Amino acid sequence: MDAVTLSELRKPRAFPAVSVMVPAHRRTPTSLRDPAGRRTLLTEVRRRLDADTRVPPGAAEEVVQGLQGALAEVDFGRARDGLVLFAAPGEHHAFLLDQPVEERIVVDHAFATRDLVAAHTRATRYWLVVLSDTVRLWDGRSDSLTEVDAGGFPIVGPRSGTGGPFDAERRRRFHREVAAALGLVNGRDPRPVIVAGVTRDQAFFEEAARGTIVLAGRIDGDHDGAGSAELAELARPVLAAYEDLREVAVLSELEAARGLRRYAAGLAEVVRPAEEGRGAHLVVERGYYAPAVRSADGALVPVDGLPGEIRGTEVVEDAVDAVIDTVLEYGGEVTFVSDGFLIDHAGIALVVRY
């Protein structure tokens, strides 16, 4: 899953665009691993479509067949936490996610991409730089690491000498070369950086890279010969600490924005600046869902009720998902936090550009 795919999936579709989110664990009540579970799901989707007067003749059958096709593409042998299915006239998609999803069916003019966005955002992507006489760069995505063989990496440097002034200067020049190469890679795909190496190499590298990277943390020691599994295990607590600090930073950012009057909280207040393209950073609780209706002038108006309970030609089943899509389309950032984390911000808050 990448930003380009997400952007394409967020675009409006021919109605009805059906999104199905279900837990993928074998132990869940709605198990799609067996034919009975799949029939139950498709029957419920068909019931929802048949009851919706907006669905054109023949479209319900086409979408249900699309969901069948999507299900046929899923490898249930792969252990995952959540499954997302999309189907609209002429297309279908299936995605297995490494995070839980809330079981729901959404019928709308666009796919409900929130869980995909959350998975993309939550899956911590980072660079791991292993400093030694040969510097290796690793592409980190959650718990997996892949060595990068591009952008000049791996970079072979001078062997460590006696530790005198001449040797120190050679190491400084080498780490300036490493920092420059990483700067080019990170410039195309910005991520936090973890640095692994002995203290002296860390100091040389961080001096050279200061101001050009976001340092997520350090792994001390010589790990020149370490493989991906060992490095991923070492990186895990560093990433956890970084994520904890980032959540605290989100709250600090919201409070600072409130003081500058560049802040909106609560769905009703967030919608307008988001649709005006003023959303710089949207923060939303993962479990927050709410419906809305489109007014005569096209504005999104939140209404009381649960998603799926309200019917009508202008109903948007999950307005929060619509706001997320809008902020992303205008180049804003979206951060998902734990439920209850934004209790003082009504579950959703927006830092506005102006």
Automatic annotation (TrEMBL):
<protein>
    <recommendedName>
        <fullName>Chemotaxis protein</fullName>
    </recommendedName>
</protein>
<dbReference type="Pfam" id="PF18845">
    <property type="entry name" value="baeRF_family3"/>
</dbReference>
<dbReference type="InterPro" id="IPR041289">
    <property type="entry name" value="Bact_RF_family3"/>
</dbReference>
